[in-house]
Every structure is written in C-alpha cells, then in structure tokens.
Specification:
The protein is of the alpha/beta class. The chain folds into three domains: about 130 residues, Rossmann fold; about 160 residues, P-loop containing nucleotide triphosphate hydrolases (Rossmann fold); about 150 residues, Helicase, Ruva Protein, domain 3. It is about 45% helix and about 10% strand. It has 21 helices and 14 strands. Strands 2-1-3-4-5 form a five-stranded parallel β-sheet, with helices on both faces. α4 links the parallel β4 and β5. α2 runs parallel beside α3 and α20 crosses α21. The longest helix has about 30 residues. About 5% of the residues have low confidence. Bound molecules: adenosine-5'-triphosphate. The site of adenosine-5'-triphosphate has 20 residues, from α7, α13 and α16. InterPro entries: AAA+_ATPase (IPR003593), AAA_lid_NorR (IPR058031), CheY-like_superfamily (IPR011006), Homeodomain-like_sf (IPR009057), HTH_Fis (IPR002197), P-loop_NTPase (IPR027417), Sig_transdc_resp-reg_receiver (IPR001789), Sigma_54_int (IPR002078).
Length: about 475
C-alpha cells in the first residue's frame, strides 16, 4: 500500500455537477491531495465502506439525499473525517445547521479554489494537532507508567472494592498510607474508573507549592491582587473544571488554605484572590497524605471539620510489609516496567531465592523502594537473571534504615552506587544530599520538619529531592 505524504489528504468529493467533478479531479492532485469523486450520496456511502478519508466535501443538494444526510452517516462511521458542506447563498442557514452537526466548515458556491485550498490547509493543521496530542498522551502515559493497581492480598482486595464503589460517584476521597505505598496510583485509578475519565485530571503536590503563592495557585487571582499580579490568573480549581483535582500531600496545606478548601467543598465555589465574586467549579476532589491527620488535629495543625468533610470515603493503603503476598507480582510488574517489557517476558528473570530475600525485608519506602530495587537489580544484572547478590545492599542485608550515616563504608550500598561521582570523589553536592537525607530520616521523613531543621524552604527541599531522584535515575 502506498504511504501517504504527511501534507497530503485523502478527500471524498460528492457532487452531481460533472464540471465540478472534473475540476476537483484536476485540482486536488495538483495541490498534493488524493481525491475520490462520487456523483451522489449513495455512492459516497458505498465509498466510505471501503476507504478512509481525512476530509469529505459534500454538496448540500443532491438528487438522492442531502449533504446533511451524508454528513450524519459519515460522522457515525468515520467521526475523524472532517466534513465541508458546499451550499448556495440561499441555504446558509442549513450550512449553519451542518456546523452544529459537526461539519468542519462550509463553502458557498460558486467555489473558488483558493477558498477550498485554505480550508484544506486548516484541516491539515487540525490533523497535525490531533496527532501531536495523541503522541503527547502516549508519552505522558509512558512517563507515568502503567496505572494498573497491582495486588490481590486480602487488604488490597478491600482497597479494590472501595475503589469500585466510590469511583463512579462524585464523592471526595481521602487516601492515606505511608510514603511510596501507592496513593498516587489509587487516585489515578479512581479517576480512570470515574465518569470524569475524559475530563482533566489535575495533580497538585501541595508540599511543593510556595507558601506565598499557594492560594493564588489553587484559587487564582485578579490582576493587581498583589504586587506582581500583572494579569488575571486561573487557579487549579478552575483548570480542573469538569474533572478531578488530586491534592497530594494534603497535610502540607496551611490552615488558611484549609479553610478555603472546606469552603469549596461546602459551596462548590472558589473566589480568586482580589475578586469580589465567586466562581462555581464542578470539580471532584481526591486527597492523599502520608501524615497522621488525627495527630495533626491534636497539634492544632489540621482542621477537624475539614478532615470529617474529606474522609467520608477513606482508603487506607497498607504498607508493603503488611501485604507481603503481593510482593512477587509487584516485583515482576515493576521489573517489567524498568526493562520496558511485559511481566510475562521478565517472569523468569527473578530467581525464587531472590523473591525469598525480598520477602524477608521490611520495605520502609514501600512499593517505591521496591520499584527502585528492581530498577537497580535489572541494571546490575545486565538484563540477565537476577540473583540475591544483584539486590541493593540494604535489601540483601535486611537493613531497613538506609545507612545515610556511613555512606562511604559500603561501596555496594545503592545510595552510593546511585549517587553520581560517589566513588572516591564526593562532591560538595553529594555531601549536601547526604546531610539532607540524614535529617529527613531523623525527622521520620516529615518534610516540613526537615526543611525547618535545615533552614531551607519546603519548596527548596522538594526541588533538591526531585533533582537528586533524577540524578539517581540517570546514574542508574
Ligand atoms: N499497587 C501498585 N501497583 C503498581 N505500582 C504501584 C503500586 N503501588 C505503588 N506503585 C508504584 O510505586 C511508586 C510509588 O507509588 P506512589 O507514587 O503512588 O506512592 P505514594 O503513596 O503516592 O507516595 P508519596 O506519599 O511519597 O507521594 C510508583 O512508581 C507507583 O507506580
């Protein structure tokens, strides 16, 4: 089959005027397009059964059926074909009706070739945009990894059941669980199973929002609301309108923002900073936190009324050490992700003793730590069978706490192997990261407390941790 040049369209032309048919047979190839000419609607519908077209130019008045009839049928069998209706001046209203039915545009007779050419250029542009969008979606999916929620241990079965119940409703959901236990995956699964799956999913890492801008980021602002607000700005609630807003690390929101979130949940309205009017937003909110909100309430850091408003449906994700039966399947899934293969293709790479060794470990970093361990082992084993010796040192030696305090003592520690330039030449940056990680551990991974002890902003801490994570990935 001949390949279609990227600037060429396959066009279906339907008109009973033979002079116009001849004109199109000559002119379309001259413009680089392929054309199939039909003299009436019936022949056109026949042609649609055997070929695919990028565009269809349809005469409004034909002997057997109208262009509108053909348009309706065309949109049923080939919704991606862009239709253009040709009409005389007298029937402009019908042309407007055609637009309502999904036509791309209409042209009035007598047709001028420049006009047709202009419309075809716009169709080509729209096709390019659609393809670009598709390519971007595929890349986003590849970057985010498969969103399948793996695990059928009794506790995970409960999680699956709650997801099935709550996903189709518009109810707010609170997902709790230790870091790396899969809260983000659960939020995306709820979204994908919801009625809003075709609308935006807007994830927000509340901890990474700068404290001075958090309100404007979430709720928007009017021009002049504060110094530097030189234009109106849409908040993320408005961006997510019709869809789902995922507030990750909810526990990091300050109390002022907590009040505003509560107000939104109760009224469905947000008010931009500096505005006097509220805006109605149809947004479903899903929240996640690894912090103990009850303890935060006792410490007067979290509003009790907000927690009760949020936890109508609470999904508690168990830590990996409490659902060890999920580990073999998860390990295969995550190994397949690193190897860019299917779980079946990598199943034989994991020796039974390697799985046993992993079952003996506590996994304080939960599934994320398992994902990193699988990536590490895959690289160290050179894509071959993975033995116990290929696992990161802390997994092999069953040391749950990552040995930040003696980073150079064990050259096989994943922390060192993954730290760029770690061998004998530690850079100032390496030393800084070791210190940050040590303080993070000391504070039980509580990021605000860590940032406070280090004397840096929470945002800076997140930036440093993200950069470090990227460097570890690049260093393999
Ligand atoms: N049940 C699961 N099935 C498949 N992959 C999972 C599962 N749980 C977690 N993962 C993977 O583990 C990693 C960490 O998961 P995720 O980001 O959802 O954790 P989290 O609880 O949101 O962490 P944090 O509290 O640090 O934000 C991701 O790569 C995710 O794809």
């Amino acid at each position: 089959m001949a390949t279609q040049p990227h600037n060429s369209l396959r066009i279906l032309f339907v008109d009973d005027e033979s002079s116009l048919q001849e004109f199109m047979r000559l002119e379309m190839p001259r413009l680089g397009h392929q054309v199939t000419v039909c003299q009436d609607g019936t022949t056109a519908l026949q042609a649609l059964k055997t070929a695919t077209f990028d565009a269809a130019i349809l005469d409004l008045r034909m002997p057997d059926m109208t262009g509108i009839d053909v348009l309706e049928k065309l949109k049923q069998v080939s919704p991606d074909t862009e239709a253009v209706i040709m009409t005389g001046y007298a029937s402009k209203e019908t042309a407007v009706e055609a637009l309502r039915l999904g036509a791309f545009d209409y042209i009035t007779k007598p047709c001028r070739i420049v006009e047709i050419e202009g419309i075809l250029i716009r169709i080509l542009e729209r096709r390019k945009l659609k393809n670009k969008n598709l390519a971007l979606q595929t890349r986003v999916q590849a970057a985010e990894g498969s969103t399948g929620l793996i695990g059928h241990s009794p506790t995970m079965d409960v999680v699956h059941r709650v997801i099935e119940t709550v996903a189709p409703t518009d109810s707010t959901v609170l997902i709790t669980g230790e870091t790396g236990s899969g809260k983000d995956v659960v939020a995306r699964t709820i979204y994908q199973k919801s009625r809003r799956a075709d609308m935006p999913f807007v994830p927000v890492n509340c901890g990474a929002l700068s404290p001075t801008l958090v309100e404007s980021e979430l709720f928007g602002h009017r021009k002049g609301a504060f110094t530097g607000a030189d234009r109106d700005h849409k908040g993320l609630f408005e961006v997510a309108n019709g869809g789902t807003l995922f507030l990750d690390e909810l526990g990091e929101l300050n109390k002022n923002i907590q009040v505003k979130l509560l107000r939104f949940l109760e009224s469905g309205e947000v008010r931009r900073l500096g505005d006097t009017e509220s805006i109605r937003c149809n947004v479903r909110v899903i929240c996640a936190t690894n912090r103990d909100l009850h303890k935060m309430i006792q410490a007067d850091e979290f509003r009790e009324d907000l927690m009760y408003r949020l936890n109508t449906f609470e999904i508690q994700l168990p830590p990996l050490r409490e659902r060890r039966e999920d580990l073999p399947q998860l390990a295969k899934h995550l190994l397949a992700r690193s190897a860019k293969r299917t779980p079946e293709q990598v199943a034989n790479l994991l020796k039974p003793e390697t799985i046993d060794a992993m079952l003996d470990y506590e996994w304080p970093g939960n599934v994320r730590e398992l994902a990193n361990a699988m990536e590490y082992a895959y690289i160290v084993a050179g894509g071959q069978e993975i033995g116990v010796g290929h696992l990161p040192a802390n997994v092999r030696l069953k040391r749950s706490k990552i040995p930040f305090a003696q980073p150079l003592a064990d050259q096989n520690s994943p922390m060192i192997l993954q730290m760029p330039g770690a061998a004998n030449t530690r850079t100032l940056h390496d030393i800084e990261m070791e210190h940050i990680l040590r303080v993070l551990e000391k504070n039980n991974r509580n990021k605000p407390a860590t940032a406070a002890e280090l004397g840096i902003s929470l945002k800076t801490l997140y930036n440093k941790l993200n950069r470090w994570e990227e460097q570890r990935k690049t260093a393999g």
